[in-house]
């Protein structure tokens, strides 16, 4: 951390990416599609994301107002900052705040159960990329309920996180006990973004709950349904790491109930890695899930079938499960279930219209 100016420069770049939260393959403000060549992705991103001062006419008024009057505070475990816990900072922010609060979080492990209430928007968690802090807690469904078991719950709009490890430290479920699901993160606010964050858990690691969300350069680890919810989200250059043991593992459980709902997950230039085999890209937890993988490298952990209807064959006609120009042994279309959509440019352009 080189001081206040560095934090401001980095944050200005981060917040402006909220203009990209449309969860489509073509998501730039000038309709330039994400390039097929992975080596060009960061150039494309940087060309389309500028300082918020240069993009004010494209951002909503509330966001512009928030960025003008940013406050930066330091959270340090050794007491050298203004605060020693993240929760203390959140409790210090007045309800219905209109200005961005950037928390620089020093290295180390913070054992806290953290909630950002809906009435406290414009909160940023920022760690050093060379000394990433770990936010951890051992909450389980049995004690807190599924969505409230998360280590970090971001209910408010305009949440941003960068360079963090967010972990649920509960043990791996053995499949015998009730309520062992344990979330690392729940994002329930609109226009939220995460950059270079590691989300660590087992079952239900990330509740991508509601709203428009953007994940870039992240690492998400889990076993079953480890990305689930009703978000409309774009995952760019993100690693999805499966902790398999040759039992059924599932990456996504997107929760769209109707074709009228404007939600879905897009994974673009991602990598699917891990252990074991028999992993499904997604399963039809709800009636009409919508998930697309494009330009994604898939290791052999992916089962040839690719997708799962959760033993509800009537959902074969209501799901939207698409793949576009993916690679690796797990991307072979041989053996894919019949309701998989092999996408082309025309389908891609209309899939999320």
Task: Explain the layout of strands and helices.
Blueprint: H1 4-16, H2 41-48, H3 61-68, E1 71-75, H4 86-92, E2 101-105, E3 109-111, E4 114-116, E5 123-127, E6 134-137, H5 141-144, E7 152-154, E8 160-162, E9 165-168, E10 185-187, E11 192-195, E12 198-200, E13 206-208, E14 212-216, E15 219-222, E16 227-229, E17 232-236, E18 239-243, E19 249-254, E20 264-268, E21 271-275, E22 279-283, E23 290-294, E24 297-298, E25 307-308, E26 320-324, E27 340-342, H6 345-351
Parallel strand pairs: 1-2, 2-5, 3-6, 4-7, 5-8, 6-9, 7-10, 8-11, 9-12, 10-13, 11-14, 12-15, 13-16, 14-17, 15-18, 16-19, 17-20, 18-21, 19-22, 20-23, 21-24, 22-25, 23-26, 26-27
Explain the overall architecture.
The chain has helices spanning 4-16, 41-48, 61-68, 86-92, 141-144, 345-351, and strands spanning 71-75, 101-105, 109-111, 114-116, 123-127, 134-137, 152-154, 160-162, 165-168, 185-187, 192-195, 198-200, 206-208, 212-216, 219-222, 227-229, 232-236, 239-243, 249-254, 264-268, 271-275, 279-283, 290-294, 297-298, 307-308, 320-324, 340-342. Helix content is 13%, strand content 31%. The protein is built from 6 helices and 27 strands. The chain has a domain at 1-20 and 50-213: Pectate Lyase C-like, CATH 2.160.20. The strands form 3 sheets. The chain has an 11-stranded parallel beta sheet, covered by helices on one side. With 353 residues, it is an alpha/beta fold. Helix 4 (86-92) links the parallel strand 1 and strand 2 (101-105). The longest helix has 13 residues, at 4-16. It catalyses: [(1->4)-alpha-D-galacturonosyl methyl ester](n) + n H2O = [(1->4)-alpha-D-galacturonosyl](n) + n methanol + n H(+). Belongs to the pectinesterase family.
């Amino acid at each position: 951390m080189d001081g206040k100016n560095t934090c401001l420069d980095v944050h200005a770049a981060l917040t402006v990416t909220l203009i990209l939260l449309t969860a489509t393959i073509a998501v730039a403000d000038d309709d330039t599609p994400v390039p097929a060549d992975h080596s060009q992705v960061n150039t494309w991103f940087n060309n389309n994301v500028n300082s918020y001062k240069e993009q004010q006419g494209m951002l909503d008024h509330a966001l512009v107002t928030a960025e003008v009057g940013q406050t930066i505070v330091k959270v340090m475990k050794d007491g050298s900052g203004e605060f020693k816990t993240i929760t203390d900072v959140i409790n210090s922010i007045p309800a219905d705040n209109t200005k961005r609060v950037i928390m620089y979080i020093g290295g180390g492990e913070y054992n806290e159960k953290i909630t950002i209430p809906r009435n406290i928007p414009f909160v940023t968690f920022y760690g050093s990329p060379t000394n990433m802090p770990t936010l951890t807690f051992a909450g389980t469904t049995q004690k807190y309920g599924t969505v409230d078991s998360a280590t970090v719950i971001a209910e408010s709009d305009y949440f941003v996180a960068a360079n963090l490890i967010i972990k649920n430290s509960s043990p791996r479920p053995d499949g015998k006990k009730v309520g062992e699901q344990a979330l690392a993160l729940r994002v329930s606010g609109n226009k939220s973004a995460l950059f270079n964050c590691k989300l660590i858990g087992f079952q239900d690691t990330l509740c991508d709950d509601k709203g428009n969300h953007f994940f870039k350069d992240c690492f998400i680890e889990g076993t079953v349904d480890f990305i689930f919810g009703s978000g409309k989200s774009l995952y760019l250059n993100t690693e999805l790491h499966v902790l398999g043991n040759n039992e059924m593992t599932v990456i996504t459980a997107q929760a769209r109930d109707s074709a009228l709902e404007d939600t879905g997950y897009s994974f673009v230039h991602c990598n699917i890695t891990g252990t074991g085999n028999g992993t499904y890209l997604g399963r039809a937890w709800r009636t009409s899930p919508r998930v697309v993988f494009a330009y994604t490298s898939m290791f052999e952990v992916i089962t040839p079938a690719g997708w799962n209807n959760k033993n509800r064959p009537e959902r074969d006609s209501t799901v939207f499960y698409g793949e576009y120009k993916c690679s690796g042994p797990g991307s072979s279309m041989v053996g894919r279930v019949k309701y998989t959509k092999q996408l082309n440019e025309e389908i891609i352009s209309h899939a999320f219209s």
